[in-house]
Amino acid sequence: MNAITTGAAVVTGAGRGLGREIARLLHARGLTVHVTDIDGEAAEAVAAELGDRAWSSALDVSDAEACRTVARRSVERAGALAVWCNNAGVLHTGVSWEHDEAARRLMLDVNAHGTMNGTIAALEHMRPADQGHVLNIVSLAGLVAAPGEVVYAASKHAAIAFSIGTLADLRRTGSRGVHISCVCPDGIWTPMLFDELDNPETAASFQGVLLSPEYVASRAVTLLDRPRPVLTIPRHRGLVVRLFDAAPALAVRLVPHVMADARRRQRRLAKRRARGEDVRPRR
Ligand SMILES: NC(=O)c1ccc[n+]([C@@H]2O[C@H](COP(=O)([O-])OP(=O)(O)OC[C@H]3O[C@@H](n4cnc5c(N)ncnc54)[C@H](O)[C@@H]3O)[C@@H](O)[C@H]2O)c1
Questions:
Q1: Does 19 contact ligand 1 (Cβ within 6 A)?
Q2: What residue owns the CA closest to ligand 1's atom 36?
């Protein structure tokens, strides 16, 4: 497979967190990076950090037409659309019956529809060229129902089903050169989790291996050289959540124990931070 080092790369939600790291690595590969975020100023600051071959736009991924405009402008600027990374995401936690409708809609609009809008906007240019890579940042919550984060998990299940199904449809209709890969990481220490150490509803995010955005970004970008429909990070946690998903009755019985253990880990981290320790993951 040819290494992807030229053309445009669009990253959504790249004003901070994981998206910012992915934008940085794509830029380091030589790609012309279009840094986008609903927070246009944050996107602009990241593009300025990257320097040459980077520019920014404010983009709300729930707006399908705006995604198409970003794709078109990226092609105009760099000649081709090599990579589109659907990274933008939002998390609201709590039991499902306590989410208000606005929170449910927002998660589905950004995490599910946003991924669909971005993928379709990218395919409009990648399919005719029969080349390009759509990188969709999902979550382990896309593979298993995550207690306390259930609407988020539902939105991420939609994103992964859409992604794998669209890849299958690409192959079924003769495309060989366009790839769609999903990244399903465990909890990542980004602003999404910074304020969640005292929230028991988010415990599931702390149950396994807390990862750094730098590490997840580096693994995500390797997919450009070796595309895979789904990459779980770390791999063993992917196996664990898939076992839970395959045995829902058992999983429901085990959840109180698993969540109690996760809450203990989350509390330990909260205590370490309260003592002023550096709680950033080592990898
Ligand atoms: N942090 C974790 O534990 C974790 C774990 C697994 C997967 N993820 C996924 O990784 C991705 C990145 O999350 P993060 O941890 O960096 O979170 P983050 O909250 O730090 O960053 C998310 C970014 O998305 C942007 N955004 C929000 N709504 C948007 C919209 N409508 N349109 C465009 N941009 C929008 C925000 O402004 C922000 O810059 C998300 O898809 C998230 O679901 C995160």
A1: yes
A2: 13
130: Cβ–Cβ under 8 A, 6 or more apart, which residues?
A: 175, 176, 177, 178
| d(CA 110, ligand 1 centre) in Å | 9
What spacing in Å lies between the alpha carbon of 230 and ligand 1's midpoint?
19
Q: CB of 137 closer than 6 A to ligand 1? A: yes
pTM: 0.97
Left if phi > 0, otherwise alpha if psi is -120 to 50, otherwise beta: which for 68?
alpha
Tens digit of each residue's pLDDT (9 = 90 or more) over 100-157: 999 999 999 999 999 999 999 999 999 999 999 999 999 999 999 999 999 999 999 9
| 54-58 β-sheet, strand order | 54-58, 32-37, 8-11, 81-86, 132-137, 178-185, 230-233
The CATH architecture of the domain made up of 8-274 is 3-Layer(aba) Sandwich (3.40)
Ligand 1 atom showing the smallest separation from residue 106 Cα: 31
The structural domains of the chain, with segments of one domain joined by +, span 8-274
